[in-house]
Specification:
Number of helices of chain A: 2
Structural class of chain A: mainly beta
Strand order of the largest sheet of chain B: 1-2-3-4-5-6-7-8-9-10
Strand content of chain B: over 45%
Radius of gyration of chain B: 18 Å
Order of helices and strands of chain A: HHEEEEEEEEEE
Shape of chain A: globular
Largest sheet of chain A: 10 strands, antiparallel, barrel
Order of helices and strands of chain B: HHEEEEEHEEEEE
Largest sheet of chain B: 10 strands, antiparallel, barrel
Strand content of chain A: over 45%
Oligomer: heterodimer
Distance between the termini of chain A: 34 Å
Distance between the termini of chain B: 48 Å
Number of strands of chain A: 10
Helix content of chain A: 10-25%
Helix content of chain B: 10-25%
Chain lengths: 184, 164
């Protein structure tokens, strides 16, 4: 890890998590499995998914969100055409702001670079509050339109209600609705 | 002779590559205005380098004020710092919304110029934009803001050319 990486790590360890978020985040930590329905912009179901995700602490004040999503074929996951996608994002508290920002891990071989939204770098952040965990990703597309993705994980008695939106330049083109339970 | 040819090629290349969107954004160059129930709308676009300076005010309040420079994406412009920051060399540094800064950019789409802004407000995305569209001798303006899942229209007006 280079000097900037060490400094960033030290700062993120020293910075307290947003106070209101501390308990809320602790209550969300865990491993979950669930299912979701994918709809197009007109509300037509286009796909069913199995979900498996983990919310775990990262360096005491941040958290790691790892999601495995399996797109089913005809409601089954044991037939050809099934796809599996794994995504992992790490968030750390933003200094002086009530949200978390994506942790861009520097290394000896890949020094940390400045975020360049105009070059298409995704701008990712997260909010943890009494309503749950909310993650956002903004991307400026090649032609200057934007894409905004929102994912909301909200506690319900059985686990978490899941809500995901993909907004293309002001129009919702994908909506995912589901639920998940905590597993051991 | 070969030197002259190389010079001509160099000049032609610099002319072609000078800026993908320069001519189009400058179609709006000048001052535009309209009276609306919410107050006077005033738009001013002036050439600046390979881009333009855009200032849009509504009822005396500045809605957008940006120095728009072309990017390497055709028809896409980024807001660069002006004033002291530009003098200090920060002119090409794009804003980082994660650090509380507003990201402003513009894009050309046919007869339209869309100037947009992203900020993070209390953890939520705040996106607003001004769509400018040529309507004969006038410019049609639409101000929109992301509210929940969709962009809502805050203002629509037809601007006329105004004296500088």
């Amino acid at each position: 890890m280079d000097r900037r990486g060490l400094l960033a790590g030290a700062v993120s360890a020293l910075v307290a998590r947003p106070a209101a978020a501390r308990n809320a985040l602790d209550e969300l930590l865990g491993v979950y499995v669930g299912t979701a329905r994918v709809e197009d912009g007109e509300g037509r179901t286009v796909e069913q998914r199995d979900l498996d995700f983990t919310i775990e602490l990262f360096r005491r004040t941040g958290f790691r969100l790892r999601t495995i999503s399996v797109s089913l074929v005809g409601g089954r996951r044991d037939v050809p055409g099934v796809t599996r996608r794994e995504v992992e994002v790490v968030f750390v508290p933003s200094r002086g702001r009530p949200y978390y920002v994506e942790f861009r891990d520097p290394s000896l071989f890949r020094p940390r670079e400045e975020l360049q939204p105009m070059a298409g770098d995704p701008v990712r952040w997260a909010v943890v509050d009494a309503q749950g965990l909310h993650t956002y990703a903004f991307v400026l597309l090649e032609d200057g339109r934007f894409e905004l993705q929102e994912a909301h994980r909200e506690p319900i008695p059985e686990g978490l209600a899941l809500r995901f939106l993909r907004n293309l330049d002001g129009v919702v083109v994908r909506r995912v609705v589901g639920r998940a339970v905590r597993v051991r | 002779m070969r030197g002259l040819l190389a010079l001509l090629l160099l000049l032609a290349g610099s002319a072609i590559g000078s800026s993908p969107g320069h001519a189009d954004i400058l179609a709006w160059a000048g001052r535009w205005a309209a009276e609306t129930p919410g107050g006077k709308v005033d738009l001013r676009i002036d050439p600046a380098g390979r881009g333009a300076v855009l200032r849009l005010a509504r009822g005396g309040h500045v809605v957008f004020e940006s120095n728009l420079a072309p990017t390497d994406r055709p028809g896409v412009f980024e807001a660069t710092a002006t004033g002291l920051f530009a003098v200090l060399g920060r002119g090409r540094t794009a804003a980082n919304p994660l650090e509380g800064e507003e990201l402003v950019w513009a894009r050309e789409a046919g007869d339209m110029l869309v100037v947009s802004r992203l900020a993070i407000a209390s953890g939520k995305p705040a996106i607003d934009r001004a769509r400018l569209e040529r309507a004969g001798e006038r410019t049609r303006l639409r101000l929109e803001r992301l509210e929940g899942e969709r962009m809502v229209v805050e203002l629509e007006a037809e601007l006329e050319r105004a004296p500088r």
